[in-house]
């Protein structure tokens, strides 16, 4: 009488593979336990100060939450309805679009021009690169304070030299004039953003193969043609990166507004993030401020997705 071994089924094979994977996982964890111990601290900090903070902020959006009021009632979607009907928030969005639409392209354009110049075989090129990069490593608050002094309507250097050159007859109130306040902030922001764009563009320029330019010169292409048909297309991924980073950063503009204009005059320089700051720390409406923050996140997400779709269609 012969005995046959029980046939193995697919389920048995799957369960055995699962057990082996689990054993292998626990073996790797036990083998590298010291690495997980070191990683536990930053992961814990990330969980507390990022994940928990994000979840709690979303929780606040459904409450009328104030640190000076003992009662914090649940209001459902009322904060979101108030955000859609808030004319001050709508004005802040318009100001932010204005700031973004002017400062980001200008910063990228001037950054590219400086990068092209510093990519030439100039004397003291390393020193010039360092000098142009200084605004990026200088604390932004310091830059804003310096520019606030330069643009001062009474004793600012810009007014002084414009008067000496007889360009103007009376001092300009750069930061208190409703028509000059936002352009003045944009001018400072463009100056500060040139250095970052310059460094990124310079690195991209140095990665373009020299053989492309040699072939273009052999074919008789001018420098302008080389720029249009070789440099600009090869810099397309870098340009997209700077555009995405620039829009995200400009939508979160706060420091120069806080230091230079405080949102004035007449809310002409109040941006979205500064309005969120006012809602939270001036009016103590933390629930509504959290709602505004998630509204800003939604806008940034939409813009980023649109830009990525445009880039992918261009590559197709």
Task: Write the topology of this structure.
Layout: H1 10-31, H2 33-60, H3 78-85, H4 87-118, H5 125-137, H6 140-150, H7 157-164, H8 181-206, H9 210-218, H10 223-234, H11 236-251, H12 255-261, H13 272-281, H14 286-315
Helix pairs in contact: 2-14, 3-14, 4-8, 4-11, 5-8, 6-12, 8-12, 11-14, 13-14
Describe it for me?
73% of the residues lie in helices and 0% in strands. The protein is mainly α and 316 residues long. The model has no long low-confidence stretch (mean pLDDT 88).
Summarize the structure.
The protein is mainly α. It contains 14 helices and no strands.
Q: What CATH architecture of the largest domain would you give?
A: Orthogonal Bundle
What number is the mean pLDDT? 88
- β-strand percent reads under 5%
Shape: globular
Structural class: mainly alpha
Low-confidence region ranges: none
The amount of helix comes to over 70%
- Quick one: biggest sheet? none
Order of helices and strands: HHHHHHHHHHHHHH
**Number of separate strands:** 0
In CATH, the homologous superfamily of the largest domain goes by the name MetI-like
Radius of gyration: 28 Å
How many angstroms separate the termini? 70 Å
CATH hierarchy class name of the largest domain: Mainly Alpha
Number of helices: 14
How many structurally independent domains?
A: 2
Q: Say what the CATH topology of the largest domain is.
A: MetI-like fold
């Amino acid at each position: 009488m012969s005995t046959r071994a029980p046939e193995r089924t697919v389920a048995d094979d799957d369960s055995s593979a699962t057990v082996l994977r689990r054993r292998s996982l626990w073996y790797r964890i036990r083998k590298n336990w010291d690495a997980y111990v070191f990683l536990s601290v930053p992961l814990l900090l990330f969980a507390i100060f990022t994940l928990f903070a994000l979840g709690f902020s979303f929780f606040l959006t459904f409450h009328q939450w104030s640190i000076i009021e003992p009662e914090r009632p649940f209001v459902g979607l009322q904060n979101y309805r108030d955000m859609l009907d808030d004319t001050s928030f709508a004005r802040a969005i318009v100001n932010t679009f204005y700031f973004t639409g002017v400062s980001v392209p200008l910063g990228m354009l001037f950054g590219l021009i400086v990068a092209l110049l510093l990519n030439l075989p100039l004397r003291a090129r390393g020193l010039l690169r360092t000098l142009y990069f200084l605004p990026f490593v200088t604390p932004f608050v310091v830059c804003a304070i310096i520019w606030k002094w330069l643009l001062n309507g009474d004793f600012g250097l810009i007014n002084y030299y414009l008067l000496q050159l007889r360009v103007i007859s009376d001092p300009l109130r750069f930061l208190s004039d409703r028509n000059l306040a936002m352009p003045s902030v944009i001018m400072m922001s463009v100056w500060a953003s040139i250095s970052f764009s310059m460094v990124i563009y310079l690195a991209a320029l140095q990665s373009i193969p020299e053989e492309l330019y040699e072939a273009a010169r052999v074919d008789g292409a001018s420098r302008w043609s080389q720029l249009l048909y070789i440099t600009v297309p090869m810099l397309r991924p870098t340009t997209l990166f700077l555009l995405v980073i620039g829009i995200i950063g400009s939508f979160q503009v706060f420091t120069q507004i806080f230091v230079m204009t405080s949102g004035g005059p007449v809310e002409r320089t109040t941006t979205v993030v500064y309005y969120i700051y006012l809602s939270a720390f001036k009016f103590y409406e933390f629930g509504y401020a959290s709602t505004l923050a998630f509204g800003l996140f939604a806008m940034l997400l939409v813009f980023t997705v649109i830009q990525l779709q445009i880039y992918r269609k261009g590559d197709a």
